[in-house]
Write a structure and sequence with these properties.
This is Endonuclease YhcR N-terminal domain-containing protein. The chain is α+β, with helices and mostly antiparallel strands. The protein contains twelve helices and 19 strands. The chain has a five-stranded mixed beta barrel. The chain has a four-stranded mixed beta sheet with strand order 14-17-16-15, covered by helices on one side. One calcium ion binds near residues 341, 345, 352, 353 and 354.
């Protein structure tokens, strides 16, 4: 099973007063129950980096996107939600900060986008802590792009400037309890009970077992009716919402004609060549209504950022080897791909589907681009429409769930950050 198991980073770097703690969703390992005192260095951090006396300015950090670890000092100026969008109020979640050398900066070109790993979100996320706006902070992590913008990823420490770079533990329990705590689901004690506490390939294997048990497999004809239910327009019960284009269209206006909607396979069915026989090709978790023409433009392209505008699909881009959906469904697309990878593991007459780093997969049972899909999962968390869809599929149609809608952090737990 070609699962990429994140390198274990059960790491707490303790150098004098400096403490850098990786998020618990990454820190958990098969060594469940072992104390989190095994000291190893995070992948890109060095003792020098976390104790460095002179932090970089934001301007220097923007000009030094080398992947190296560094500490950067800047003022919190908002939350990035897309490459060129930083919100300054009404923060949607705790996933990212934008920092700048000036507390009054409004140009995103002079901002650094800082990823907030799950363990730090309750203390350093703007939705929970809007009073952070304007504060000067020191952040330590890898100088590399985030939201396709100069950034810092795999952040290992946050501190107010002028204080020791000691980061309070997000919660006292996360160091020793082998359970990701950033998301809870009503199904944790039932449907997911046997998966809780697992990471990496063990989590992949257990989720595969869970979501492949007791499943009702639809026929391709039944998918029409199912999509009318799962993707119903919340404002018009006679319509569905097309996934990429976002257009509301009559449920009855389906078929193969221009401007009708049809059944889009988000995991393109040629990638693994599963067709539309009962199985991956009729798994409604990744089937969505889409405009016939837009569906044709997407074709079997892998997913990636960039390209030119797509007709009839506002916010969508495509080029010769990839397709990018509108911002509002980037996470939905990513979580559908991760669902398919865990649901379909071979041994049942179908290929073992997995995401990879390519945008030239053709008919291989892979779909890219993994790094971008992971980014989309973070930047577009599940909303009410996506959650309702998962519930309707579980209650009415297939009786299995997409674990990554219930626990988006499980993408990181299985596929790394
Ligand atoms: Ca979404
Ligand atoms: Ca698989």
């Amino acid at each position: 099973m070609p699962v990429v198991i994140p390198r274990r980073r059960l790491a707490a770097v303790v150098t004098g007063l400096a403490v850098a703690l990786v998020p618990p969703s990454l820190a958990l390992s098969s060594a469940a129950g072992s104390p989190a005192t095994a000291l190893t260095l995070p992948h890109a951090a060095t003792a020098q980096a976390v104790t460095a006396a002179a932090p970089l300015t934001v301007s220097q950090a923007i000009g030094s996107q080398t992947g190296q670890s560094a500490t950067v000092r800047g003022h919190v100026v908002g939350q990035p939600t897309a490459t060129s969008t930083v919100v300054r109020s009404g923060f949607p979640n705790d996933y990212a900060l934008a920092i700048a050398d000036s507390a009054s900066e409004t140009s995103t070109s002079r901002m650094l986008y800082v990823q907030i790993p799950s363990a730090f979100r309750s203390s350093w996320g703007l939705k929970t802590n809007p009073s952070l706006m304007g504060r000067q902070v020191d952040v330590t992590g890898s100088l590399s792009a985030y939201f396709s913008h100069p950034g810092m990823t795999a952040t290992t420490a946050f501190a107010f400037s002028g204080t020791p770079t000691t980061t309070p533990l997000p919660t006292t329990s996360t160091r020793t309890t082998p359970v990701p705590t950033s998301t809870t689901s009503p199904y944790d004690s039932t449907y997911y009970a046997s998966a809780i506490g697992k990471t990496g390939s063990a989590l992949h294997t257990e989720l595969h077992r869970i979501i492949s048990s007791g499943v009702t497999t639809l026929t391709y004809d039944q998918v029409w009716t199912a999509l009318g239910d799962t993707d119903q327009d919340p404002n018009n019960a006679g319509n569905v919402i097309e996934v990429y284009s976002g257009r509301s269209i009559a449920k009855s206006d389906n078929g193969g004609g221009v401007d009708q909607w049809n059944r889009e396979h988000v995991w393109a069915k040629s990638h693994g060549d599963f067709g539309t026989v009962n199985g991956p090709g009729t798994d409604v978790h990744h089937l969505r209504p889409e405009d016939v023409t837009v569906n044709s433009t997407r074709g079997n392209l892998d997913f990636d950022n960039g390209g030119s505008a797509v007709a009839q699909c506002t916010g969508c881009l495509s080029d010769s080897d990839s397709f990018q959906p509108r911002d509002a469904v980037k996470g939905d697309v990513a979580r559908m791909i991760f669902y398919m990878a865990v649901r379909w593991d071979g041994g049942d007459g179908f290929a073992d589907l997995e995401p990879n780093s390519s945008v030239a997969n053709g008919t291989a049972p892979y779909l890219g681009k993994l790094s971008v899909l992971k980014q989309w999962n973070l930047q577009d968390p599940p909303d009410a429409f996506e959650k309702r869809r998962n519930q309707v599929i579980y209650d009415t149609w297939q009786h299995n769930r997409n674990p990554f809608i219930d626990h988006p952090e499980w993408v990181t737990a299985i596929y790394g950050s």
